Prior knowledge:
Layout: E1 3-6, E2 12-21, H1 24-28, E3 35-36, E4 42-52, E5 63-64, E6 82-83, E7 89-90, E8 96-102, E9 108-114, E10 125-129, E11 137-143, E12 149-154
Amino acid sequence: MPCLTRSREGTLLHSSHRIELVSEDILASTAIAGVMQNPWPGLHAGTAIHRSEDDSLTWSDPVWLSGLPDAVPLHLSLNTPVAVRGNVLQTSSGRLLISAYTLGEHNTSCLFPSDDDGRAWSYVGPIAEENNETDLGYPHAVSLQDWRVFVVYYLNRKVDVNDRTALRFIEAYVVPE
Length: 177
């Protein structure tokens, strides 16, 4: 899911994760998360952030979200397999934030800030870790009027919506400005 945001400096930021097509032979030898078979064989190639400083006439080369401990590319020519479903937010200090999630055994929602208008991004830590016991994912961040950031994500696809005890929140984590 591509997302487009304009920073206060006027830069357009486009974020999207990618799947790279692979041969059936490569797919058959890879029995791990981040591999898809339908509608075509593919490996998760990571999340790229592109920048435009001229209202989308031209776009920068991609900057890839990376730096997660124990997260390795699914192929030598690919990037860290993290995915985004949310948007880039800007804090009162000008810092940009994007939330992403990992694929695989340890499904983790995590945070990446940029202090240079999206030219570089760094991993700062997890937002939540559930080790796939609750299948969390699809993080989405919302900037509140007082510049606090509220991040939500689903906690279990198999939750009975009528069972209110199944709905729970993870303790808040404050990211230093």
